[in-house]
Each structure stands twice: as C-alpha cells, then as structure tokens.
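Researcher: Please generate the 3D structure of the following complex. Treat every line as part of one assembly.
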Amino acid sequence: MHEISVCQALVQQVLSLMQAHGARGAAAIHLLIGPLSGVEAELLRGAFALTAAGTGLEGARLVIEAPALRVACATCGAETEAAPNRLLCGACGDWHTHLVSGDELTLASVDLVVGEVEEPHV
Amino acid sequence: MCSICGCGVTPAAHGQSHAHGHPHVPAPGGTAAVSVLKGLLDENDRIAAHNRVHFDEHGVLALNLMSSPGAGKTSLLEATIDALRGRLRMAVIEGDLETDNDARRIRAKGIAAVQITTGGACHLDANMVHRALHDLALEGLNVVFIENVGNLVCPASFDLGQHANVTLLSVTEGDDKPAKYPVMFRAADVVLLSKSDLLPHVGEFEPSHALHCLRELANPAPFIELSARTGAGMKGWFDWLLAQTARRQTHAFRA
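Model: Done. Output below.
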C-alpha cells in the first residue's frame, strides 16, 4: 500500500503550492497516472481521503487522467499502443521498444481557491 | 551545503529548481488553475540523487536488491561475500518490516550491515537509505548492497540512489512473475533466477518462459540462472558484479 506514501508527498506538494500562491484551499488536483506508474488510481483515491484529513485539502477533488501506454520500436520505427505486460511493437512484434508514454506519476495542475473569504451577512 | 543533513554534499542540479506555475489572474474569491507538471515523488527523487552523490564521491557501486519475500536475497549476499571478500570491499543496508535477523547474518560474515526496520512500511525510500548512510562509512568500499523489503510491488516506485536494480526470481515462484509484476521487472538491470538447484523438483517452472515474459517487457537485462546453495551459475553474477564495480571506479576516477 505505497499509495499512502505517494499521497503524503502529493499533499505536501499541494500545501507548498497553496502557500506560495497565498491560496485558501484547492478545489481540484489534476494527476497523470500511467498504467506503468506502479500506482493504482483507485487505491490512490482511498489513500488521499486518509492523507488529506486535517490538512485543509479534504474537500479537494482528485481528477486522475491515465495517459495511453505507447511504445516506439527500435527495429521498424513504428509508434503503437501496448499493454502493461506486453510492450511489443504493434507493427512488427519486436520487443526492442522504448516507452513513449504510460509511466507518468505526475502532478499536472491544481485549481487553487484564491481571493477573500466572503463574510456571511448577519 | 546539503539542505537535508548539512553533510556538505551539494545535491545534483535536479530539485533545485523550485519553479512552479503562476495562476491566471484570479477572480476574487474564485479558483485559479496553476500548472505544476512535477513528479509526485520529486522529493524522494531529490534525496535519492543526493544519496547517489554520496556513493559517487566514494566510487562506490550501490545496488538495490528486490524480490518477493523468501526468494533468497540474503543467501545470495552471504554467498557473494564468501566468494568475493578478497576482491571487493562490501557493505549491506538491510530493509525489513521487523527484526534485524538479516543484518546479523551479514555481520556474522564480518561485513558492516545497517538494519532499517520500516515498522510496517512495505518498501524502502530514499530518506530511510539516507539516514542509514549516516551510520555507514563509505570510505574504502567498492559495493553497497541495499536489500529492499521483500515485495514485488511497492519497492519498484521508489528511487533510493542506487546505480542498478538487481531483481531475484526464485524457481519456487511462478515463471510468469514478470508478466504479473511488470513495473518491478521492467526496472530490473539484471534478473537472477535463484534456487536453480530446485528446478528438478518444480517441473512446472520453465526458465525460458520467465525469460520470454521479461523480454515482452522490452527489458534486455541479463538473465542469470543460479543457486547460492550449490554455487551453480554464480560465476555469471560475480562477473556482472565485478564489471559494474570496475565501471563505477573508473567513473569516480574520471570525475
């Protein structure tokens, strides 16, 4: 369950960002989690609920995007989609490929809550 | 000056940029989208790079040993120490959830070992290794083995500052393990098929299938069948280790 560790790092990054921008909170956190990142999106959501508790980020929405897994072939030059445990070239079938995308574990952007708090009228 | 421990090592250039995006002109009381595009484990990676600087300054090769529990990481280290103690100066950082049993096994061989007990955490991270390095004198060493927590999932996500990943797969496991744990086996720089002396007793394990699954991950890593108990195949591992150590020393000499 290393998603907890990953989430602790995420919460720290977002809190630093809020501080740097004088923000009051975060409405949404946008992540890129590739199929070969080693992190499960659903476990990350569960871990975020636990990790964010008491930090001021409880209300933040996690928006997780999974980039496609794509490989480039060193033999024929084609760029094709692949499966996490079968990174073969989709054109010629060779295994001499390298990953183009699919291992992302990235904080893409944060929608910060800024500005003054509106005082309720009494 | 190192901001982590004040040990005088300047971390590599990464992580020094504290660049972050700037919000679009915010509407009062609204939200502002700030682009970040940073790795979630940036802080871990920064400390890992710092550890690597420590290793590099001493011309020490750092290896991250990973496998499922019981695949024979400690036995491999014991046999390696016995065979190469005249040629390499070695030390070990042991990672376990509990107990210092493995560190005691290594110390019984007369080799320095620092035990990290993670207290339930399923993997080592760069900060744990950094703290362990404060208890380990790197002067005069050639190799530091970091024996990770036995686990084929979590350790793969955390850079420790190692130069290479050594991944063990024992023949008492399934030969399709690389297909089941692609993140771990894709990251391997050498795969050791351990306990090969048991192959006659586990007929369903086909080494060629394990190799096939590894290549399907587009991983060209050397694949070495060996038994720490009988010594069969160990020469291939020793040759790889000695070659990597020599390369690291040349690198340090040039630097």
